[in-house]
Task: inverse folding
């Protein structure tokens, strides 16, 4: 009989145990929930998601950059530039994107004239595409990418300073060639440079893009570029143009800020006249600028909005080239 | 008798209940701990702690700044500058720190010549102290402070641009007068400007301070200044100097970065020659510079280390004063 009595408390104990377990489980779920909610939000971290980067990052790779140079039909210029850029401070590696389909790279000649201070990798492409240079190359080990056109020479001082600026603005395209878009009453955007003026914008000028033909940017953006809408790739391939505009859209969308930081170059030169190939850059094509306005409007449609933002900040190196470069006649 | 039997399970239940409660309490403590640990760390938030600011912030107060100008013995210059600065865009209020102990302010005359676009508050001081201007004035309603010496005129363009730069670098002192310290083999620091060169530093120059006599900074730093070691106040009062060096130490300690961002002024002028008071600024005193080196070394002792960091970034307005200001002869 007391069993009967004693069973009751037993059952009660069973129920209590059940409650106990369930309560603990609920509380633990709450903990888990709280922790997850409080994890740093990827969107807050404005840098391209590095967890998407499986590559090992040696210490030197953190304090150095990779030069990516795409070349087509101007091997003489390429070799000249490879020689120029071999001695830049913090240069980790050079990746040459070889768009001369069916032609041999100068790799043999290059190596025969070694040793060279910095390794050069020739990436032979199967199709001559503007956007070949925007691949996420497995040889790329640094966070910082320096992308240079194959006809542009920038002084070692400018590059060293711009790299130090990029290290302070790693989420931006830090470069030497600013451009802008302007909106017109018709709602159509126009692409250009200093010759374009924003209606109603006061003193000075603004830029909303920094071209990647002479710029530092985060290698994570090359990964992000692989995940863009197909229409973006189609636009770039159709025009063989505008890959740099697309990159500015991508960065502006990612950061919600102006895509670029403009560093005033002390010495930047176009070497095109030095080539014997007789080949001149695609930006000489009559339709080049028109295409770029066309691309801005297309990209606004593709991304369903205009992410580009204006900046009027120009950065130069304090006290260089002369100690009084910060003075103005007073 | 069965009571005896039945008490046992009862006790067991009691113990289980005890266990249950204690486990839940422990788990809850864990949650609390986790939550606290995951709260945003004030040190991470590089801005001065705004929760310490009880003041109401009107919308305009968020997009505008307060001009704080300390004056001594140069009322004619003061009135000239008040007139100059009345029309600066985004100016919310002017606070005049009146260090002419025992003398009447020109408030009456100022008001008799009204109306004026921006309110001017005269803060009569009881002691003539350099650091009077670094109080956390109750009249200060904006996050941004523009501090100007009473003999310095900066153009409206420069001020408007520098304010837009400060909005992008609110944790820094954004101003027009860069200075630096250098360390010597003897371990003693020296204070100066372009005439000082860091041993072993290559091309260009660097700065490690931006003087607050012509600069924007966050009003929260005025609060932080009230919580410095007594020795800092003693040093400033003893020398009637170095309050600006102390502010750079404070900001550098707070951010762990260079304290200042240097904006290259297009038009900055010293109006001292225009005063009739015959009084000339304290920086003319023979000991002025020596005092400032002395202060740097004292502050290093007080703060037990050198927080100042170097920067070589110089910011100017893109396309101003002329659209080609970003070009260099190539």
Result:
């Amino acid at each position: 009989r007391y069993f009967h009595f004693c069973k009751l408390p037993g059952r009660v104990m069973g129920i209590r145990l059940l409650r106990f377990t369930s309560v603990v489980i609920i509380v633990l779920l709450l903990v888990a929930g709280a922790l997850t909610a409080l994890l740093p939000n990827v969107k807050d971290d404005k840098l391209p998601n590095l967890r998407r980067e499986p590559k090992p990052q040696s210490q030197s790779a953190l304090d150095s950059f990779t030069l990516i140079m795409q070349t087509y039909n101007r091997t003489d210029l390429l070799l000249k530039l490879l020689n120029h850029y071999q001695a830049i401070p913090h240069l980790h590696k050079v990746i040459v994107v070889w768009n001369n389909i069916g032609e041999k790279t100068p790799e043999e000649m290059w190596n025969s004239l070694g040793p060279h201070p910095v390794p050069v990798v020739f990436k032979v492409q199967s199709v001559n595409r503007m956007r070949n240079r925007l691949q996420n190359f497995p040889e790329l080990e640094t966070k910082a990418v320096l992308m240079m056109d194959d006809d542009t020479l920038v002084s070692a001082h400018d590059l060293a300073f711009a790299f130090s600026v990029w290290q302070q603005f790693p989420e931006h395209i830090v470069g030497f060639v600013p451009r802008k878009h302007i909106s017109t009453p018709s709602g159509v955007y126009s692409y250009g440079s200093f010759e374009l003026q924003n209606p109603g914008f006061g003193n000075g000028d603004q830029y909303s893009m920094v071209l990647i033909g002479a710029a530092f940017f985060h290698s994570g953006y090359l990964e992000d570029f692989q995940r863009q809408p197909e229409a973006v790739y189609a636009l770039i391939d159709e025009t063989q143009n505008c890959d740099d505009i697309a990159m500015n859209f991508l960065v502006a969308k990612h950061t919600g800020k102006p895509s670029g930081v403009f560093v005033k170059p002390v010495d930047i030169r176009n070497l095109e006249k030095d080539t014997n190939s007789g080949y001149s850059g695609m930006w000489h094509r009559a339709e080049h600028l028109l295409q770029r306005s066309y691309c801005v409007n297309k990209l606004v449609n593709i991304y369903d909005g205009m992410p580009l933002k204006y900046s009027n900040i120009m950065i130069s190196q304090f006290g260089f080239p002369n100690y009084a470069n910060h003075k103005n006649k007073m």
